[in-house]
C-alpha cells in the first residue's frame, strides 16, 4: 500500500469517530483525553491499517452501536437515586468527561427552538434589575408582575425550607445517629420531606413591639426583613403557580387519553357484543338442527342452497358434461335440474314442518317442555356498553317500524332483544339491539297487541292482544324460522308455544313472575295463570270498579280508558292500577285487596314496584311514589300532559307523555330532565306542541331506555 | 440582600451548599417521583449539584439541567444561562460559549449575558494562548530535535 493510501485511511477513521459522537466541536477533548477508548480504537485502526482498514472502520461503527446501547441504558437509570454524580457518566467505553459530553449535548435544533420563541419570557435585564433594587419596594415587583420569577429565585426561596428540614431532623433525630445508618436517615428524610413545612407562617413579627419601638435602626431592619420575606413569598407563589400549571397540563393530557381509551373500549365492546350475538345464533342453529334431527336433510338443503346461490356456476358443470350432446338436450337437462331442486326444497320444508309439529304433538305439554329446555340455558350476562354513552345520547333508531305507531314494546337486557308491536297490526317484530336488525316476526294474534313482557331469563315473550288471548312465544325458534325465510312457516305460528284463552274481552295489561302470569282484561276480570300448565288458576272479579270519569262524551271522544291500566305481580303480591284512579295491592293467595292507595284523580295508566316502593302514573298528569311498607306517599311530581307509560330502574324514573321527549327523574340526584330528539334546553319548553313523533310507550333497564312513538319510530337512549 | 436577584451571578455557582442540604433537595425530587417531579424541585437539586465542589456532581447537575431544558420549553432561556454557568464551572468552555452565544443572539442587550459572554471569551482566549504556548514549545522542541538529527546526520 502506498503512503497516500494510508493517510487517506487514517483520515477516514478519524472522521468516522468524530461523526459518530459529535457534530462539530469539542472533538479534541475526546481524542486527547488519556485512556479514551476512542484513542485505543483509533490506534488499533491505524496500526491495523495495512491489514484491512475497512474492518477497522466497521469496528468503529459497531462500537458506536454498543455505545448507543450503553447510553440508552444509562438514560434509563434513575439519575436522582444516585447520591452523587460519581461514575454516573462512566461506563465500559468512555470516561466520565466524554460520557458527560455525550449526554448533555444539545442539538442545534433544540438549542434554537423555543429559545427564540416569543412566548418565552425575557431574562430580566441587568439595568432594570438595578432600578428595582433601588426602589426596593413590593409595588415595583408587582408592576413587573407580567414576568414570573426565575428558577434560581425559586431555588433561593426553597433553601430556607431545606434548612428548616435539617433543623427538624436534628431536633428529632439527634446528632448521634446521623452517620451511623445512612439508609435509615434517608428514609427518615423522605418522611420529613413528604410533609414539608412549606407554608407555615414564616416569621411572627411582633406588632406590639413595632408600635412600642422608637429605634429607627430596628424598624428599618425589620422593614427590610419583611420585604425580603414578602419577596420570598411572592417567588414561592410563582413556584406553586407553575406547579399547578404543570399539573393541570398533565391532567388535561390524562383526560384526553382516557377519552380516547373510552372510545376504543366502546367500539371493542360493541364488536364483542355483535360477535357474541352471531355466535349464539350459530349455536342456536346447531341445537335447532340437532333437536329436530335435520342433519341428514341439512346436507341436502345445503345443496339446494348452493344450487340456489350458485345456479350459474352449476350449469357450466352440466354443460361440460354434456358438451358432446346437442343443445336441446342440454336445456332439457337444465330444466330437469331446476325442477328437481324445487321438488327437493319443497319436500324439505314440508318435512321440516312435519318434524316440528310431530315433535310438538309427541309431547303433550309444550309449556312444560319449553321451560325444561330453557332451564339452565343462561342468557348472556349484563352488558355495560350503555355506560360508555353520555347521558341523553341516542343509541339507535328504527324508523317506520310499525305503520300505525307503536302500541307496546319490551326488551330483555340492554343491547339484547327488543320486541315491538304496533296499532292495527297483529304482528310482533323482534329486533336485535346490537346488530340493529330485525331478527324475527311473531305471527299469530288476530288483533292489535296491547301489552307484552319479555323475560331476561328465558328467550320468551308473552303478549296480550285485543283478540282476548295471551300468547307465549319462543323467540329462539322464531328467529330460526325467520332465518329459514320459508313462506310456509311464516304463515303458521310455530313459534307460539301456548295460547291462554279464557278472557272474554281485550287484554289491557299483563305481568308475570316466575310461574305466575296475571292479566287484566276489559271483561272486568283479572286472571292468574300457571305458566307451567297453562291453566287459569284464579279469577278476580273487578266489576265493582266504576269509572271515576263518567262523562259519556269524554269517553266517546277520547277513547275509553282501559279498566285495568297497569298490573304487576311478584310472588304472591299483585298491584293493579285501575280506571278509578285507585292502586290496589292484592294477596294472590287469598285473592283480596290488602291495601288501597288512593290519590290519583284519573285512571292509572302505568305502575311499577320494587322491594321498597311503588311508582304510579296516571292520566291526571301525576306521578306518585308510594312507600310500600307504610302505604303512604313518599314523593310525587306532576307533568304537563297525561302520562301514557312509565318505567324505572335503579337510578331514574322515566315517563312518556305523548310528546317527542320523555321525562327523566333522576332519583339519586333528585333532578328532572327531558330526553329525546329535541332535548336541548331551548326546545324542551315547546315540547307540548304536537310533533311528528310522540312517544307513547317506554321501557328502561339499567340506564338503557327504549321508546316507541306514534309514528312507528323506535329509539334507544342512554339515560 | 433585600431581594433575590433574578439570575445568579457566576459567583453564586462557586458557593457550595452543605451536603445535607443537597441530600434533602435530592430527597424532595425522589419523593415527588424522580423524573416526574416538578421542574422547580429538579432545578433545585441540579443547581445544588452544580454549586458543589465535586466535578462529577457538577456534571450530573448539568445533565439534569439539560433534561429540564429539553422538557420545559418556557424555561429554556433561563436554563441556557444556568447551563452556561455550569459549563463554565466544569471548564467546558466550548459548550459554554455555544450556549452563551445562543443567549446573546436572543437578548443582545442583556448586560448580565454580555458580562457572562465576556468572561467565557476571556477564558477561552487564555486557553488558546496556553495552547499556542504549548504548541510553540512542541514545535521548538521538534525543531531542536530535528536540528540535532540533522547535525548528527551531517556528521
Automatic annotation (TrEMBL), chain A:
Keywords: Coiled coil, Repeat, WD repeat. One of its GO terms (molecular function) is ubiquitin binding. SMART domains: WD40. GO terms for cellular component: mitochondrial outer membrane. Residues 237-271 form a coiled coil. Residues 600-656 form the TEP-1 C-terminal beta-propeller domain. It comes from the Eukaryota. It comes from Tetrapisispora phaffii (strain ATCC 24235 / CBS 4417 / NBRC 1672 / NRRL Y-8282 / UCD 70-5). GO terms for biological process: mitochondrial fission; peroxisome fission; positive regulation of mitochondrial fission. This is TEP-1 C-terminal beta-propeller domain-containing protein. WD repeats lie at residues 442-483, 500-539, 574-596, 597-636. PANTHER family: SUPERNUMERARY LIMBS, ISOFORM B-RELATED. Residues 126-147, 300-320, 329-345 have a biased composition (Basic and acidic residues). The gene is TPHA0B01120. SUPFAM superfamilies: WD40 repeat-like. Residues 122-148, 300-360 are annotated as: Disordered.
UniProtKB/TrEMBL annotation, chain B:
The chain crosses the membrane at residues 128-150. One of its GO terms (biological process) is peroxisome fission. It is a single-pass membrane protein. InterPro entries: Fis1, Fis1_cytosol, Fis1_TPR_C, Fis1_TPR_N, TPR-like_helical_dom_sf. Its main location: mitochondrion. It is found in: Mitochondrion outer membrane. Keywords: Membrane, Mitochondrion, Mitochondrion outer membrane, Transmembrane, Transmembrane helix. GO terms for cellular component: mitochondrial outer membrane; peroxisomal membrane. The C-terminus is required for mitochondrial localization, while the N-terminus is necessary for mitochondrial fission. Has a role in mitochondrial fission. This is Mitochondrial fission 1 protein. It comes from Tetrapisispora phaffii (strain ATCC 24235 / CBS 4417 / NBRC 1672 / NRRL Y-8282 / UCD 70-5). Belongs to the FIS1 family.
Amino acid at each position: 500500500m502506498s503512503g497516500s493510501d494510508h493517510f487517506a485511511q487514517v483520515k477516514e477513521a478519524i472522521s468516522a469517530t468524530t461523526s459518530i459522537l459529535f457534530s462539530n466541536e469539542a472533538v479534541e477533548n475526546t481524542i486527547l483525553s488519556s485512556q479514551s477508548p476512542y484513542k485505543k480504537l483509533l490506534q488499533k485502526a491505524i496500526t491495523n491499517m495495512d491489514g484491512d482498514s475497512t474492518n477497522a472502520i466497521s469496528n468503529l461503527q459497531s462500537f458506536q452501536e454498543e455505545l448507543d446501547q450503553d447510553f440508552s441504558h444509562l438514560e434509563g437509570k434513575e439519575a436522582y437515586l444516585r447520591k452523587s454524580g460519581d461514575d454516573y457518566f462512566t461506563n465500559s467505553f468512555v470516561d466520565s468527561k466524554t460520557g458527560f459530553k455525550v449526554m448533555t449535548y444539545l442539538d442545534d435544533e433544540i438549542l434554537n427552538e423555543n429559545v427564540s420563541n416569543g412566548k418565552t419570557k425575557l431574562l430580566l435585564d441587568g439595568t432594570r434589575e438595578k432600578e428595582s433594587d433601588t426602589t426596593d419596594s413590593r409595588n415595583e415587583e408587582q408592576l413587573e408582575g407580567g414576568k414570573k420569577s426565575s428558577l434560581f429565585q425559586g431555588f433561593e426561596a426553597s433553601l430556607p425550607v431545606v434548612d428548616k428540614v435539617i433543623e427538624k431532623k436534628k431536633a428529632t433525630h439527634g446528632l448521634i445517629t446521623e452517620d451511623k445508618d445512612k439508609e435509615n436517615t434517608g428514609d427518615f428524610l423522605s418522611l420529613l420531606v413528604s410533609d414539608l413545612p412549606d407554608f407555615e407562617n414564616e416569621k411572627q413579627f411582633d406588632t406590639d413591639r413595632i408600635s412600642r419601638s422608637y429605634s429607627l435602626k430596628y424598624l428599618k431592619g425589620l422593614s427590610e426583613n419583611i420585604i425580603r420575606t414578602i419577596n420570598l413569598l411572592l417567588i414561592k407563589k410563582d413556584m406553586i403557580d407553575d406547579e399547578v400549571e404543570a399539573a393541570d397540563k398533565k391532567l388535561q393530557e390524562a383526560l384526553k387519553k382516557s377519552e380516547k381509551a373510552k372510545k376504543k373500549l366502546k367500539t371493542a365492546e360493541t364488536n364483542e357484543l355483535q360477535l357474541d350475538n352471531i355466535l349464539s345464533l350459530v349455536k342456536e342453529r346447531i341445537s335447532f338442527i340437532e333437536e329436530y334431527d335435520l342433519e341428514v336433510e341439512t346436507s341436502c338443503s345445503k345443496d339446494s342452497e348452493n344450487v340456489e346461490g350458485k345456479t350459474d356456476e352449476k350449469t357450466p358443470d352440466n354443460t361440460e358434461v354434456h358438451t358432446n350432446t346437442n343443445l336441446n338436450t342440454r336445456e332439457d337437462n337444465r330444466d330437469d335440474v331446476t325442477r328437481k331442486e324445487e321438488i327437493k326444497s319443497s319436500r324439505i320444508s314440508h318435512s321440516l314442518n312435519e318434524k316440528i309439529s310431530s315433535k310438538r304433538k309427541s309431547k303433550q305439554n309444550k309449556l312444560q317442555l319449553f321451560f325444561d329446555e330453557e332451564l339452565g340455558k343462561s342468557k348472556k350476562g349484563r352488558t355495560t356498553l350503555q355506560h360508555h354513552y353520555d347521558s341523553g345520547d341516542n343509541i339507535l333508531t328504527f324508523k317506520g317500524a310499525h305503520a300505525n305507531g307503536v302500541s307496546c314494546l319490551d326488551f330483555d337486557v340492554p343491547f339484547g332483544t327488543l320486541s315491538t308491536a304496533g296499532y292495527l297490526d297483529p304482528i310482533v317484530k323482534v329486533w336485535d339491539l346490537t346488530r340493529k336488525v330485525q331478527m324475527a316476526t311473531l305471527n299469530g294474534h288476530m288483533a292489535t297487541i296491547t301489552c307484552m313482557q319479555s323475560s331476561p331469563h328465558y328467550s320468551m315473550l308473552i303478549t296480550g292482544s285485543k283478540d282476548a288471548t295471551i300468547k307465549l312465544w319462543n323467540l329462539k325458534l322464531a328467529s330460526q324460522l325467520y332465518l329459514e325465510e320459508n313462506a310456509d312457516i311464516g304463515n303458521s305460528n310455530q313459534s307460539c308455544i301456548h295460547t291462554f284463552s279464557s278472557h272474554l274481552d281485550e287484554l289491557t295489561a299483563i305481568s308475570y313472575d316466575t310461574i305466575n302470569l296475571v292479566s287484566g282484561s276489559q271483561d272486568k276480570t283479572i286472571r292468574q295463570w300457571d305458566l307451567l300448565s297453562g291453566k287459569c288458576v284464579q279469577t278476580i272479579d273487578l266489576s265493582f270498579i266504576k269509572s271515576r270519569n263518567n262523562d259519556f262524551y269524554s269517553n266517546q271522544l277520547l277513547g275509553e280508558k282501559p279498566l285495568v291500566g297497569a298490573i304487576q305481580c311478584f310472588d304472591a303480591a299483585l298491584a293493579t292500577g285501575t280506571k278509578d284512579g285507585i292502586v290496589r295491592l292484592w294477596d294472590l293467595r287469598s285473592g283480596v285487596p290488602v291495601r288501597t292507595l288512593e290519590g290519583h284523580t284519573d285512571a292509572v295508566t302505568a305502575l311499577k314496584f320494587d322491594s321498597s316502593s311503588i311508582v304510579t302514573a296516571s292520566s291526571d298528569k301525576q306521578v306518585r311514589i308510594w312507600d310500600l311498607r307504610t302505604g303512604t306517599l313518599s314523593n310525587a311530581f306532576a307533568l304537563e300532559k297525561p302520562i301514557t307509560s312509565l318505567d324505572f330502574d335503579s337510578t331514574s324514573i322515566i315517563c312518556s307523555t305523548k310528546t317527542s321527549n320523555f321525562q327523566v327523574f333522576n332519583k339519586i340526584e333528585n333532578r328532572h330532565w327531558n330526553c329525546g330528539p329535541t332535548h336541548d334546553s331551548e326546545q324542551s319548553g315547546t315540547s307540548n306542541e304536537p310533533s311528528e313523533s310522540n312517544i307513547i310507550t317506554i321501557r328502561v333497564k339499567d340506564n338503557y331506555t327504549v321508546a316507541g312513538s306514534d309514528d312507528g319510530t323506535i329509539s334507544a337512549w342512554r339515560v | 440582600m433585600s431581594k433575590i436577584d433574578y439570575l445568579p451571578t457566576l459567583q453564586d455557582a462557586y458557593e457550595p451548599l452543605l451536603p445535607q442540604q443537597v441530600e434533602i433537595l435530592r430527597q424532595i425530587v425522589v419523593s415527588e417521583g424522580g423524573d416526574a417531579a416538578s421542574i422547580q424541585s429538579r432545578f433545585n437539586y441540579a443547581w445544588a449539584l452544580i454549586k458543589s465542589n465535586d466535578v462529577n456532581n457538577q456534571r450530573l447537575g448539568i445533565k439534569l439541567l439539560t433534561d429540564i431544558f429539553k422538557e420545559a420549553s418556557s424555561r429554556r432561556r433561563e436554563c441556557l444561562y444556568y447551563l452556561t454557568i455550569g459549563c463554565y464551572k466544569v471548564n467546558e468552555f466550548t459548550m459554554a460559549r455555544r450556549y452563551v452565544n445562543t443567549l446573546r443572539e436572543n437578548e443582545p442587550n442583556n448586560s448580565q449575558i454580555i458580562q457572562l459572554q465576556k468572561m467565557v471569551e476571556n477564558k477561552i482566549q487564555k486557553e488558546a494562548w496556553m495552547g499556542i504556548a504549548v504548541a510553540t514549545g512542541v514545535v521548538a522542541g521538534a525543531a531542536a530535535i530535528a536540528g540535532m538529527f540533522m547535525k548528527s546526520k551531517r556528521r
